[in-house]
């Protein structure tokens, strides 16, 4: 894919990532390191919890979604630089889920003080093949124009 | 720590986690798997980017923060079950950072339809020893009362 800069984007632009299969082994490994709770670590222990079975950490779903966006979602020339994010996990991510993300550009704001950069807002859902929403995200990303100096950059005031 | 239930919490309650040292090796490993961008993977490549040096993926900071909260932050009887979250990354997380989280309960809402459960809102900062804020988070968590049935549970309407 061709690399995109701030001036290449329009509100309403849509992107779709490839797919990622989430294995039981990866769920256990991530949870063991970053979210060691019974419902993320052990099928039997998970049965009697709110999740009614093994579920991935929400942060694991978020990390996988980021991988999809970086590797096959948004071909931005200067990378995916998140300033802030809002997310919900409407349904638990399960072993064997095959997910992808669908992304829409919802807002573009060029900085007044530094017109070589700006913030875009993207909304994206992490979906299973049957359309269940595992994560719903709104993210504010920092982007640059082609004419931006290549040197160190300051975050503009919004 | 004693396990806490919904009725044990009050707005204004504060918690503080232990510390976690983030190594260069862990930054590279996480980024390789979930956020493979130059500024998270290679010092030299990172120098000429917005980050001006190697920085951890924001999702890595989020995952480490979750580990701290689960293992030493919030001793909730039924675990840390996130419904939704808002977060910003005011400064990049760097190799060698030693971080902890400081948590405040800011809102408690018992469900009207299912009074054995409710949502609490917690605000927490992920801080370095010198007080730099690496992540600022507001999370909505699902909690239960001592009298909640132990069986499978439905998410209440907010």
Automatic annotation (TrEMBL), chains A, B:
Superkingdom to which the source organism belongs: Bacteria
Domain MaoC-like: 12-114
CDD domains, A to Z: YdeM
Similarity comment: family membership: Belongs to the enoyl-CoA hydratase/isomerase family.
Identification of the protein by name: MaoC family dehydratase
């Amino acid at each position: 894919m061709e690399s995109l800069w701030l001036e290449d984007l329009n509100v309403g632009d849509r992107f779709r990532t490839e797919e990622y299969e989430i294995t039981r082994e990866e769920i256990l490994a991530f949870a063991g390191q970053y979210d060691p709770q019974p419902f993320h670590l052990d099928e039997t222990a998970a049965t009697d919890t709110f999740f009614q079975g093994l579920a991935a950490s929400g942060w694991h779903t978020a990390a996988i979604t980021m991988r999809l966006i970086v590797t096959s979602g948004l071909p931005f020339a200067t990378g995916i630089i998140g300033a802030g994010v809002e997310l919900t996990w409407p349904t638990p991510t399960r072993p064997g889920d095959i997910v992808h993300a669908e992304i829409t550009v919802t807002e573009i704001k060029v900085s007044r003080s530094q017109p070589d950069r700006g913030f875009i807002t993207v909304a994206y859902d992490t979906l299973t093949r049957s359309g269940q929403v595992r994560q719903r995200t709104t993210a504010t990303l920092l982007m640059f124009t082609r004419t931006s100096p290549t040197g160190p950059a300051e975050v503009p005031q919004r």
